[in-house]
Amino acid sequence: MKGEEWYQADEVAQEYDVKRFSRGGRLIDRREKRAVLDALNPLDDRKVLEIACGTGRFTVMLAERGADIVGLDISSAMMAEGRKKARAAGVADRIEFIRGDAARLPFPDDHFDTVFAMRFFHLADTPAKFLAEMCRVSKRQVFFDTFNDRSTRVLYNWLLPMGSRLYGHDEVKRLIDGAGLTLTDANHDFVLPYGFYRKIPNRLAGAFRSADTAIGDTPLGDHVASVSYWNAHV
């Protein structure tokens, strides 16, 4: 995985949410959570696995809405932050955090109703292997996002501490087919990249988001969007 050592550092885990989801990043947080909820609902009593759960942003949210969820991550420090969130939200009994390798998931076939991963595939060195494992342990649904190779993200990708793997839409569709999944829905968003929103005050983010979505709603929008959300079924 790209940036594996960086990602597991204690100081990265402690500052992760603040650096990415403060200022204009709050808008990103809301949009990503809405994308997950739109794809995964209804959640009552559903067995869910989150790959690369990190600090538990989505894990805790889904547990609050009735899911029984396992959060898997390679970073113990990240999951420690997630456990704090779960206890504060009163849903620790609905979440199990497990340190593990997404390429060799420690679960039997068809163990979960839904398996999903956010902000994971841009770090993946073997995406086909990871997606095949997600498919193997899911009996119904696989959901994930990718960063796109025709977007403004290309302009600053080299500045990131670990770099990012960028995908074309056709490449992702081939990965989905290769994993034995059927694509049921795809949404493409954020003409302006995440890094831009994180640099501006939250009070300005809404105005830029309006312009962003106006472009995104045109035929050009899908081609230049920086992020795609892929909803597939087994």
UniProtKB/TrEMBL annotation:
Q: Note whether Nucleotide-binding occurs among the keywords.
A: no
One term of GO molecular function: methyltransferase activity
Q: Which residues form the Methyltransferase domain?
A: 48-139
Question: Is Methyltransferase tagged as a keyword?
Answer: yes
Which GO BP annotation is one of this protein's? methylation
Q: What superkingdom heads the lineage? A: Archaea
Instruction: List UniProt keywords, sorted A-Z.
Output: Methyltransferase, Transferase
Xref: PANTHER family: METHYLTRANSFERASE, RHODANESE DOMAIN-CONTAINING PROTEIN
What protein name does the entry list? Answer: Methyltransferase domain-containing protein
Originating organism = Haloplanus rubicundus
